[in-house]
Structure formats: C-alpha cells, structure tokens
Amino acid sequence: MNILVCVKQVPDTTEIKIDPVTNTLIRAGVPSIVNPYDGYALEVGLRIKDAVGGTVTVLCMGPEQAKEALKTCLAIGADKAWLLTDRLFGGSDTLATSYILSRAVKKLEEEAPFDLILCGKQAIDGDTAQVGPELAEHLGRPQVTCVIELTADGDVVRGKRESDMGYDIIECATPALVTVTKTPFEPRFPTIRSRLAATRAEIPSITAADLDLDLAHCGLKGSPTKVKKTFTPSRNKNVQMLQADSPSAVAAQLLDALRRDNVA
Amino acid sequence: MADLTQYKNTWVFVETEGGKAKPVGYELLNPGREIADKRQEKLVAVVIGRGVGEVAKQAVAYGADEVLLVDDEAFGYYTTDAYSKAVTELIEKYRPATVLIGATTNGRDLGPRVSCRLHTGLTADCTALSVDEDTGSVVWTRPAFGGNLMANILCPDNRPQMGTVRPGVFKRREADTARKANIVEETVRIEAGDVRTKLVERINEVAKSINLEEAKIIVSGGRGIGGPENFALLEKLADAMGGSVGASRAAVDSGWIPHAHQVGQTGKTVSPTVYIAVGISGALQHLAGMSGSDVIVAINKDPQAPIFEVADYGIVGDLFEIVPALTKQVLARSA
User: Fold this and answer.
1) How far is CA A30 from CA A12, A33, A225, in A?
2) pLDDT tens profile B109-137
3) ipTM exceeds 0.85
C-alpha cells in the first residue's frame, strides 16, 4: 500500500508562555516538535506497512527548519520525506494550506498514486482539525476522521472512529484520507542507527514553481479567513478557600455555600 | 471575490442522531438569533436526518424563523458524503450569509468538507460570536495553542462565512411552543455510489446514559484520582447529586475512563451549574472545556494547582476523605 502521511512542525504548546505585556506567544526557547497527532498518524501508517507491505512517505509544509520534523519521521520509520516550502505559502489559512498540499500530492502522485493519505486529527497549535477534511475535498477523496485504529484489507481500510458515545467502525475503499487521533498504542521510537541515518538524510524540497498552482489561492491573500486580533483568555475569579477541622465539616461548608448560591 | 449582497440570512445546522437533535443545535439558535437580528435578516434552522419532523418544530420553538427540513432514509445516520452533499446543495440554492455548525465530531467532519467545496472560510471550534459593527461580518472567537491564546477571526470577502461552534458554550433560549414559522421540506437526492464509507458497527462505551453537555452537575476526576477503581467514589457523589461523571485528559489517556467522559480542549465543553474538579491540576486544555460552568469547585491536595485560579470554591485536602464525606452529607440532606 502506498501511504502518505502529512505532518506539521509545531511549537510544544505544553511549554508555551504568554508575554503579559504584548499578549503574544513567547516562542523563544519553546521546542519545535512533530505535531503529536501526526506522530500517531505516522505510527498507524507504519503498522499498515508492517501488516501488508508498502511505502510510507511523509510530507510537511513549513519553513526550512521543518526538515527537522521530517528527519524525526524518517528516524521513526518513514521511507521518504518531502518538504513543501515557499515564502508564497506564508500566512495560509486551512483552505489555502489544504489547497497547496493537494497540489503537492498531485505532484508526488505522478510517480505513483497514494492509496491512503493519513493526517493527524488536528495540529496542537491551530487546533482546527480542518486541513485533513479540506485536503480530502480538494482531492475528491472520501474521508474518515478521528480514528484511533486503522487496518487495511485489500483495497479497503477499516477504522475505529471516535463518536460522541463511543466508537463507530467505518470501512472505506481506497484511495481515501483518514485523520488519526490519539491511538491506544504509543508511536515507536527511533533506534540510534535510524536516527543517525536520518540526520544525514537529504530532504528534497518542493516549491511553488514545482507545482501546478493558482497563486491567488495561496498564502495570506488566498485565505478567506483573517486573524483580526489575538488576546489571552481572562482568568479573573477569586477563589474562596474552604477549611475546617474534619472532612465532614469542610464538606458541610461547601454544601452550605452551594445552597446559598442556589445551585445545589 | 463574492458579491456579498447576494447572500443573506443566518443558518444554524441542527445535527440530529436517531431522530433527535444534538443539544448544540438548539444552543446555536441563541447566538444565531442575535446575529440575524443585528444583521436584520432571518434565522434559518437546517434539520437533516430521518424522522426529524419533531426537531424542526423544536427549532422553531428555540428561535428559528424558518426551517429547511431534509427528512430521508439516506440521512438515517451521519455520513460525510451524504451530509456534505445536502448542506452544500442547500447553501448553493439559498445563499445564506452565515452558517453555524456545532463543533461535534461530526460537525467538524462536515464543516471543512462543505466550506472547501464552496471555497469559503471556516473558523473552527468557536467559543464566542459577535457581529463587526463596520462590516456586518461575524467575529469568530476561538482558542488556539491549547487554550493559551484566543483569536478573533473574520471572513471578510467570502460567503457564506462559516464556523463550527463548541457545544456547551451557549445556553439555549426558553422554548416558546407558541412560535410559528414555515417548515420547508427539501429533497436532496443521494444516488448509489455517492456515499463512499460504510458504517459497520457502533460501539457504545458510555456506561450509563451520560450527556455531559446537558448535565447540571458534573463531578470530574483527573490524575489525582490515582486509578480507574477510584472513579467509583466520584460516581457515588455524582449519583447522590443527580449529576454525571467527567474526566480530564490525563485520566482518559491513562485508560481509567472512556474518552466520552473527557472534558477539555480535545474533549467536551461543558457548562453545568456546578462543576466539581477532583484531583485535576487544571491544565489550560482542561480549563478550555469547563471554565464556562456557573460554579466551579476544586478539590486538590496541591494548593498551588492552577485549577484554583478558576474555581469559586477550593478545598485543599485528601480527596479520598473529602469526596466520601460530601457524598454522605448530600445523601443525609436529601433524605
């Protein structure tokens, strides 16, 4: 099975701090990582390759430094990696990003079509969960979103998709696009040998000039949505700490307070 | 660039499942009503499903001026292909200015498929909505970076302007059953081969019939609970108070409780009357899902836990003593 995994390099949002004066993110010193959901997508792809054979290619749109993320993916087990990079792509919203990705997929498919495209459910910086479905739409392929497991059998993939009440098992013929959320299994680790090999790997780049692209649909100008402003969420509550000699006394205090507030 | 004047009215997609509406659909008729009033246009509910006539009537009671109803076997359960075809066709036919979709798993599957087909902007997982005074465009407010940052997004030049909106953020209006509105039955043809996915099986993992988005009281557990067996303590308290059990991502990721219970940025957004956070430190991504609760109680052994920054009442102590004491007193008081 010919598998493509789309990955994004993101700041580790668990390490992020906000500048209290400018209300902007302090990115300095914040490590860049492979978006964790994309890591799960890669693991799902590698498991399918382990089971039925094939090739796993990773594609990342981003600046030059995103090659580091691709090298991580190579070290983990991807066979090939491509960086999709151009200044003309800067400022793209999800629609423009997915459009550019779709053109890059078409370019890569001149060699061999992908049976399966995997994306992380969402990136932990933007949190939109839109690029996967929009990429599927640009390519005219079916999608299954939010799966925690995926298997392949012939030209059919079968995914376990999160639902509001549990899971749905969904089957779909390839070619298809599947987005992956946190899996019940952990992604595999690179070996020292694979890490060394990945460090030395040359990552080829694809730029706007390589693609059949309508530049009016790329970058900031090609993005229907615009960020008007950013701000930090307000936290202005004053907590009332309850203390008492015994658990039952503090429990009583709380229930009295809730009763006074007319909420319980 | 689209001719914006050709587009009018505010639409709310009311998601249904098994003939019933997801709560967020009715919730969104509330901000939808405000947007429509500010823009001096109609609020239209779009109801798609099988056996959903009653949902259409409810949508009127919750504020819709008109309902577009697609009631057909082909929409008995959600599929990306059938639903995106139906919503896209209706939008192309009627040209709404604004489309609100609940940010459920299915809503976030559907929204990008439709907005991309229409080549317009979609803002994900919004937590506040307003109308820009100068342009009449909707200002979509959403958290990003795991809840560390909020952003206001505009879609100035494309229509419809679309957004998915978090469940549990807006309260539904009082139902007014005397309200009258036109329910327009629409037909969307789904041909063989249109739907390329097949639902093989549904797995219901939620132990009891919980609906966190609608719960008045939620008792939620985090890493501090220590293990799956201790969720029983929270269940007893929740039962005594007539509430439901929630969980932080840490507890869900540890496999202690199914993900359907998860509250937070990557789980559900809830706004109960009382939210009791037990052994939850209060990571931003959790706060993103529950800070809209009316009253927040935090029980934690660490007095520095960030959860206390958003709590109304805080108790520093051993949850294994305090939670059973609470349960006992709730039962005693209601006896």
Assistant:
1) 7, 10, 27
2) 999 999 999 999 999 999 999 999 889 99
3) yes
Which tokens belong to B108? 């976030």
Q: What are the residues facing B99 on neighbouring strands?
A: B11, B162
Torsion of CA B75, B77, B78, B83, to 10 degrees: 0
CA A64, CA A86: separation in Å to the nearest integer? 9
> B262: which residues sit within 8 A by CB, 6+ positions away?
B246, B247, B248, B249, B252, B268
Whether the CB-CB separation of A3 and A116 falls below 8 Å is answered with yes
**Of A16, A252, A263, which is closest to B273 when you measure between CB atoms?**
A263
β-bridge partners, A179: A119
Residues linked to residue A226 through DSSP beta bridges, in sequence order: B154
Looking at the complex, report in whole angstroms how far the Cα of residue B108 sits from the nearest Cα belonging to chain A. Answer: 7
The nearest alpha carbon in chain B to A240 belongs to B313
User: Contact at 8 Å (CB) between B15 and B106?
Assistant: yes
Residue A241: closest C-alpha in chain B? B314
d(CA A180, CA A49): 16
- In this complex, the residue of B154, B273, B298 whose CB is nearest that of residue A228 is B154
| Structural domains of chain A ordered from first start | 2-217 (3.40.50.620)
Helix/strand/coil for A121: coil
For the segment B251-291, what is each residue's pLDDT rounded down to a tens digit?
Answer: 999 999 988 899 988 888 888 999 999 999 998 889 888 98
- Interval A165-212: pLDDT, tens: 789 999 999 999 999 999 999 999 999 999 999 999 999 999 999 999
- Residue B17: which of B87, B141, B104, B98 has the closest Cα? B104
The answer to pTM > 0.95 is no
Kindly list the structural domains of chain B, giving each domain's residue range(s) and its CATH number in brackets, ordered by start: 4-185 (3.40.50.620), 212-334 (3.40.50.1220)
C-alpha closest to that of B78 among B56, B104, B96:
B104
C-alpha pair distances (Å), B187 with each of A192, B90, B105: 60, 10, 25
Residues across chain A: 264
Q: Residue A227 and residue B22: Cβ atoms within 8 Å?
A: no
Window 227-266 of B: residues touching A by CB (8 A cutoff) are 241, 253, 255, 258-260, 265-266
Q: Which residue of A has its CA nearest to B303?
A: A241
Does residue A123 sit at the B interface (CB-CB below 8 Å)?
Answer: no
Q: Where are the beta strands (DSSP E) in B50-137?
A: 66-71, 98-102, 122-126, 128-131
Is residue B168 within 8 A of residue B270, CB to CB? The reply is yes
**Rounded to whole angstroms, how far apart are CA atoms A149 and B215?**
30
CB burial of A214-238 (b: ≥16 within 10 Å; e: otherwise) equals eeebbbeebbbbbeeebeebeeeee
Chain B residues touching residue A221 (CB < 8 angstroms): none
List, in sequence order, the alpha helices (H) in B174-318.
231-241, 249-253, 284-290, 307-310
Q: Smallest CA–CA separation between B42 and chain A, in Å?
A: 24
